[in-house]
Amino acid sequence: MSPPPTRVLVVDDETYLADLVATALRYDGFDTAMAGTVRQADELVTAYAPDLVVLDVMLPDGSGFDLCRRWRTQRGVDVPVVFLTARDATEDKIAGLSDQLGDDYVTKPFSLEELVVRVRAVLRRSKPGGRSARLAFADLEIDDEAHEVRRAGTRIELTPTEFALLRYLVAHAGRVLTKRQILDHVWQYDFGGNDGVVQTYISYLRRKVDAAGQPLIHTVPRIGYVVRLPGS
Fold first, then answer.
1. Looking at the domain 134-227, which fold is it?
2. Percentage of the residues of the chain whose pLDDT score is greater than 90
């Protein structure tokens, strides 16, 4: 007998968007339910018992961040959460993740294919033994819980933005990331953004991280950046 399909609760007050997301997930083999308010989501997280929640940050009757915080701290609901957000204020960029509320976020507008990939990645990490607080590449190690970066055992001091950028690059080591992808994930710019900020922060990381050993952060002209070993 095959196992039951993984259940995903989609919470967004934009009915058309929620239906698109739910349809894409069903097409990929998931079972889905939808909610448009904090109250409905609060009810369904118990009644439907989802394996993951796709949660809009701004709902008509409250904040997705506050809802997730209540689930975590008051109700003991530890379901993985992928936030949907259109916010661009600096203090909101990684608020849900830095507070250890959500597991990932996708900035509107987004592709349905990307969202499905993110959902599957979070589900893999959330399985017992699947979530790791550490990332490593060559002699570089990133510790999420301690918010520390070390190279060859030596600690490197990074700002929160530098840390988020390096983590994103290392998590996708070997893959060329465009400036647009980096802006969307690290800065959450949903309005086009200024890709000059990416180049600036890459230079900051190079002075701190690459200066401590062989260069790991490489530029791919006219495309973006990649973390890889020299010559590979």
1. Arc Repressor Mutant, subunit A (1.10.10)
2. 34
Residue keyed to tokens 């904090």:
38
Length of the chain: 232
Q: Which residues pair with 54 in a beta bridge?
A: 10, 82
Report the candidate in 51, 54, 48, 52 with the shortest Cα–Cα distance to residue 17.
Answer: 54
User: What is the CATH code for 7-126?
Assistant: 3.40.50.2300
Strand ranges (E), 57-201 = 58-59, 62-63, 81-85, 104-107, 134-137, 140-143, 148-151, 154-156, 177-178
Q: Match 């070993």 to its residue by tokens.
A: 229
Q: Give the separation between CA 18 and CA 54, rounded to whole angstroms.
A: 9
Q: Which of 61, 54, 56, 63 is nearest to 24 (CA)?
A: 54
Return the structure tokens found at 77.
């609901």
Neighbours of 165 (CB within 10 A): 25
* pLDDT tens readout for residues 9-23: 999 999 999 999 999
Q: Where in the chain is the domain with CATH 3.40.50.2300?
A: 7-126
Q: Which residues of 188-221 are buried (b: 16+ CB within 10 A; e: fewer)?
A: bbbeebebebbeebbeebeebbbebeeebbbeee
Given a contact cutoff of 8 angstroms between Cβ atoms, the answer to whether 108 and 58 are in contact is no
Residue 6 DSSP symbol: P
> Average of pLDDT values for 168-180?
88
The boundaries of every CATH 1.10.10.10 domain in the chain are: 134-227
- Whether residue 223 contacts residue 214, with contact meaning beta carbons closer than 8 Å, is answered with no
Which residue has better confidence, 193 or 205?
A: 205
